[in-house]
Amino acid sequence: MRQSLTGDIHLNTFPAAPSLTAFFGGTFDPIHYGHLQPVTALAKLVGLTQVVLMPNNVPPHRQQPGASARQRLHMAELAVAGNALFTVDDRELQRQTPSYTIETLEALRAEKGHDAPLGFIIGQDSLLTLHHWQRWQDLLSVCHLLVCARPGYRSTLETPELQRWLDNHLTHSPDDLHQQPHGRIFLADTPLVTISATEIRQRRRQGLDCHDLLPPAVIHYIDEHDLYR
Length: 229
Hints:
Layout: E1 2-3, E2 9-10, E3 21-26, H1 33-46, E4 50-55, H2 69-80, E5 86-88, H3 91-94, H4 101-112, E6 118-123, H5 124-128, E7 144-148, H6 160-169, H7 174-179, E8 185-188, H8 197-205, H9 216-224
């Protein structure tokens, strides 16, 4: 809103730019504070208003999660219920065949259009092994990479060539993520939360308390369905 020299009030009519939407995939077996706390901190750092959780499909030839696809989906929904930052997308769980991250991101890009800023959230551990992903070189042609810090991992990539690739796409400005639809890498100084789903499953098998590791609604669901025993 602005006021003219004559005292009249006028509403600003600047066109609204598309907001940055970020997607965060994971097995979420179960979802826990090690997932949610760093991503929440990342959202504050870069001005995210929407993070979409995407539970991963696990192909039959790989070791299966302790919880079923439906149970992992329900736990993700319970974990973020009432939190306006998060929504949950189950498209990966609908696939009957193995899928690659790049294919999912290309489908999302087609849905959102060419100009919408899209981000894909990964951990520092994933950044270090990104060059082993299917068509990893194409990722930045459809999204930004938003990287959460992870304890115990180095900060440089494996080879000088990979490090140059990172340096060429690196940005320290959240504005770049909102003003460009894709192509940038943002290394976020997020909290180092040393929680893992493996640890939670082990504690459950040992009958140990996990209330400090994951949301109460998820704990209740795990108890109700007697998971990870």
